[in-house]
Design a protein that fits this description.
12 helices, 10-stranded mixed sheet, 2 domains, globular, D-Maltodextrin-Binding Protein, domain 2, alpha/beta, disordered N terminus, single chain, 41% helix
Length: 332
């Protein structure tokens, strides 16, 4: 049967416009673009030069080598991480905006503040747990240098000793609170905004005890004017090999660390999450990366998405329950 010239013209126009999808003129769908097809941004919710920034840039370097796209680290400090966290939570779930989160910017602030503006379980997709750092208990000169002796000394003075930390709700503050809970000792908290002032006060003798993060402690390893009593993790630090853990010093089960991991917005597609998770676990397991992390006081972990999600939810619950029990919650 001969086609009408008019019908042939209409069919040709439809094929050219890509709107006719049946029969021999059907247009083939364009192949999906492989991820990643453009640069990825990693938000670090604290200022440049700090521990979060350091780990973010180390992971970005590894991701760039594995994914073949530029990985840009942007520092978005403010409101104990909320500014950076919120930017990622509101980003499209396409894998191009990620968060290098940590306990000090997520699970602990959310536990401390009843009016925390994000729902951690709902607003993020855990991708990989990369590393963690411990706390270290330091005492001034003249105080007992073993944990057992210090506890006995503190009990006699019943609340007259003070301890410093990097701030209310920091992981090292909560490590000190856990020490007081487990031993029954009482100390007065002196929160600081930075490590230098607290160390100066400890050396001057106006501060009795100082809880610092392991990167800060490692930087002070050669300081003979202070004494390292114990680390709050379940393992000793490579750079402070002679400092026992709290458990070794007599407190069974004591374990307080601050994790660092990569997260994306909620509803991140499984395929993208898994691709990123595989790359990040590979980075954390790389011997050269592990050596770089340990040299500055971090412990490499390398948990995949499923393991990190389980850990992440447990960490939120742990600190929410603990700060309520200790009466530390703000914003009520």
């Amino acid at each position: 049967m001969r086609k009408s010239p008019f019908l042939a013209a209409i069919l040709a126009a439809c094929v050219l416009a890509g709107s006719f999808v049946a029969g021999p003129w059907a247009s083939m769908p364009a192949a999906a673009q492989a991820y990643p097809a453009r640069p990825i941004t990693v938000i670090a919710p604290f200022a440049a030069g700090g521990s979060t920034d350091l780990v973010a840039r180390l992971l970005a370097e590894g991701l760039q080598a594995r994914l073949g796209q530029p990985i840009i680290v942007e520092n978005k400090p403010g409101a104990t991480g909320v500014i950076g966290n919120r930017e990622v939570a509101k980003a499209p779930p396409d894998g191009y905006t990620l968060l290098l989160g940590n306990a000090g910017a997520l699970s602990i602030p959310a536990a401390m503040n009843a009016n925390y503006p994000l729902d951690l379980a709902r607003d993020f997709t855990p991708i990989s747990l990369a590393a963690e750092f411990a706390g270290v208990m330091i005492v001034r000169k003249g105080l007992p240098t073993t944990l057992k002796e210090f506890i006995a000394y503190a009990k006699i003075r019943d609340g007259k000793l003070n301890f410093g930390s990097s701030g209310v709700g920091s992981s090292v503050h909560l490590a000190a609170e856990l020490l007081m809970k487990e031993t029954g000792i009482k100390m007065q908290h002196v929160p600081y905004k930075g490590g230098s002032n607290s160390m100066t006060d400890l050396l001057a003798g106006t501060l009795d005890v100082l809880f610092v993060s392991s990167p800060v402690a490692v930087a002070q390893a050669a300081n003979k004017e202070i004494h390292f009593v114990a680390v709050t993790s379940r393992y000793r630090l490579q750079e402070l090999p002679d400092v026992p853990t709290m458990e070794e010093a007599g407190l069974s089960g004591f374990d307080v660390t601050s994790w660092m991991g990569m997260l994306g917005p909620a509803r991140l597609p499984d395929a993208i999450r898994d691709q990123l998770s595989t790359a990040l676990v590979s980075i954390a397991k790389d011997p050269a990366t592990q050596a770089r992390l340990r040299t500055v006081g971090f412990e490499p972990i390398g948990k995949d998405a499923a393991e990190f999600e389980q850990f992440y939810r447990a960490d939120i619950k742990r600190w929410t329950d603990f700060v309520k029990e200790r009466g530390l919650r703000e914003g009520l």
